[in-house]
Amino acid sequence: MAKRMPKDRGLDNTLTIMKEGYEYIQNRTKKFNSNVFETRVLGGKQAVVISGKQAAELFYDNDKIERSGTLPPRVVKTLFGKGAIHTTTGKKHIDRKALFMSLMTDENLTYLRKLTRNYWFQNTQRMQLMDEVNVYKESIILLTKVGFRWAGIIETPENIEQHAMDMDKMIDSFGAIGSPYKGYREAKKARARVEDFLEEQIIKTRKGKIHPEPGSALYEFSHWEDMNGKPMDSRLCSVDLMNVIRPLVAINRFVAYGVLAMHEFPGERTRVARDDNDYAYKFVQEVRRYYPFVPFLPGKAAKNIEFDGYKIKKDTMIILDVFGTLHREDTFSEPERFNPYRFDNWDGSPFDLIPQGGGDYHTNHRCAGEWMTIIIMEETMKYFAQEINYDVPPQDFTVDRTKLPGRVKSGMIINNVRLNI
Ligand code: HEM
Questions:
Q1: Comparing C-alpha atoms, which of 229, 242, 41 is closest to residue 151?
Q2: CA 195 – CA 188 distance, rounded (Å)
Q3: Which of 32, 51, 269, 394 has the greatest number of C-beta atoms within 10 Å?
Q4: Structure ipTM
Q5: Is 353 in the pocket of ligand 1 (CB under 6 A)?
Q6: How far is the CA of 370 from the centre of ligand 1 (A)?
Q7: What confidence tens digit (pLDDT) does each residue in 356-409 have?
Q8: pTM for this predicted structure
């Protein structure tokens, strides 16, 4: 006889998810003592939540799990954009994903490392003159500058600030999974402004009015042809291009978390500064594992499947527990301890360290910018640990795990910034 799956009662638990945030799934997997349970979301739709390394293995099996058409429309309209690569499937997905991955050359990644380092250095004097620096806000503008420059996009400093704020609104719109979200309209307008600007850049590039370097994102996206030899529609192309810049800007949340970790956990800042045996890299991996960012990912069963002895019918919505998987004892021992040394012996599995999705970069929806994220974080953390000194005034360091998307409540304030010479 088939086992009966534990069930979270309720006609529609979307609001409960929004209320409990990152803790919703953990609370249930603990209560039911199960890696899997059933719930109802988004107007009462049946969904099966799966958690852990084996759950990630199943979720990234393209024969068993379908991803297209599973993201809430509100999130697509604000966060990812209409027609975004995240919503594609099969050959079309692999074709477009190859374009994103083609940007991740050694040359481009080394350039990104240098740009990140240089921009923080150039920014030092500004931070020295400020009464206090809100690391969250400071890095959002700085990362927008890095992102635009890296992508070959030229823009004035004032407009860059506007784009940075707009992209922050889009990222915050992740709160739009639940229906009553007051920032939804604002986020849509913000998206339209940045899409307009990027589309203009693409059209100018195609007409030869501006000349980004070959190999840069603007050049490659503008001139890319799909498997049928067709260029991308200019609006869709701007959506894709923004899916390089916007998530890069979102790294500001990890930056604030990293500066918080160096303050909160004794010895971390000194160890990052020394960087013995690639410590800064391990520290960044632990920041990505430990702090809340992506809570979960949606998909649906492409056929009748089985998980943990339970049968799941074709077309059932499947929710992969991302945050919980990073915080399970059977995935990472002592998960609530911030411990970068755990990555000394990590086997590099594509199914356990999944803050940016898992599986294969080319054939699954795993984040195209994971290496970029690690590089930007490494250089930024080394800058804060090695190149400057600063004080940390009293503030609210809370990271509220019930609020989506996660962030340090104060933004992470530092002051009295001085250059280490
Ligand atoms: C996909 C997280 C930075 C580009 C994803 C996914 C997650 C994620 C969870 C979806 C995985 C899935 O659906 O299975 C993050 C986080 C970031 C980050 C937390 C850091 C703050 C970046 C950067 C880029 C980027 C810097 C720049 C290239 C993308 C793209 C996709 C994606 C294009 C879609 C991939 C696909 O559909 O195949 N990211 N990401 N991300 N990310 Fe990131």
A1: 242
A2: 10
A3: 51
A4: 0.99
A5: no
A6: 7
A7: 999 999 999 999 999 999 999 999 999 999 999 999 999 999 999 999 999 999
A8: 0.96
